[in-house]
């Protein structure tokens, strides 16, 4: 039996099944292991991990701890409540925005690559070349956030560092917009998102792209990148305080377990806290050679759980509303046994988006793509529901192929 246990109740002899944190946080080579020393327990607590999942069949039990299924049901109930609040309506259709979003994705990725190369050579960042890209991303989000956000969910492993920066910019702009922030603040936040990982230009490639867990020494080098990025951006005279703050503090956590300054609740700015959520969400949903990406739905559940300690709970819930429980581009299994890709969130029910169905798993055949509004009843274009998100890799399909019908 799997149970969720507060880290303060850990004892040697318990078997850790899941450390319940993002993969860049914990100091262990693996996620599953038998606790054999007090030192291991101390390392878990020092890493800011507040609860873990234990396997009672492989180690000591805890009588009072809830089962993993009980905690999941509690989280699910909270998510259903969050999903029932209205969204901002988009101005253009997904199909209209997709071509423009594809161009922006390509150009922005190339721009971040250039920024990183300049930073590695000790050059100052040319903000005149970066600003128009942030404006283009912002305009795309205003027209239809699902297009660019959906397109950026598919990442080339070789370009991950660059695409991650573009994704963080895009998600942060969308987050600011959904929270009703003014245009200048949104622009500055987007600039910070695009440049937040500039310090990684100084991390050796063999560490940045290591196909496996980092050693303590390598992790210490990685943890220097917020300060290095901050110092690099200071060379650009026109840089404002918001991009500097996001770059320096996007790895800070409310319980002061983050880095580089171990800021706690009350010390971390609103935008840095928002950037922290966005950064983790994009990182844990990405497929890497050493880390299997989570589905967007599972990642949002994790962020909701971690918000008890690491993230501002209100911001975490607002971010979930912003991207949707099933974001545009998510591949899902329907109750009918058909595969579909999400193309548009519903305005008042994120659990019932519009989808394009394209494959019948019961007959194992592709079918003519068709748009289904899951909020509608049977006979009115609906009559189906999402059972679970599905991995595109499992079915060897690119969901973006079926994101537009007609």
How much helical structure, as a percent, in the residues? 40-55%
Mean pLDDT: 88
Tally of helical segments = 15
Shape: globular
Roughly how many Å is the radius of gyration?
A: 21 Å
Strand order within the widest beta sheet? 8-7-6-5-9
Distance between the ends: 48 Å
Classify the secondary structure makeup into a structural class: alpha+beta
Q: What summary fits the major beta sheet?
A: 5 strands, antiparallel
Question: pLDDT under 50 segments (min length 5)?
Answer: none
Q: Secondary-structure element order, as H and E?
A: EEEHEHHHHHHHHHHHHHEEEEEH
Number of strands: 9
Summary?
It contains 15 helices and nine strands. The protein is an alpha+beta fold.
List keywords for this structure.
406 residues, alpha+beta, 15 helices, 9 strands, HD/PDEase_dom, DUF3391
Descriptive report:
The radius of gyration is 21 Å and the shape is globular. Helix content is 44%, strand content 12%. The N and C termini lie far apart (48 Å). The chain has 406 residues and is α+β, with helices and mostly antiparallel strands. The strands form 2 sheets. The protein has a 5-stranded antiparallel β-sheet, with no helix packed on it. Strands 1-4-2-3 form a 4-stranded antiparallel β-sheet, covered by helices on one side. It contains 15 helices and 9 strands. The model has no long low-confidence stretch (mean pLDDT 88).
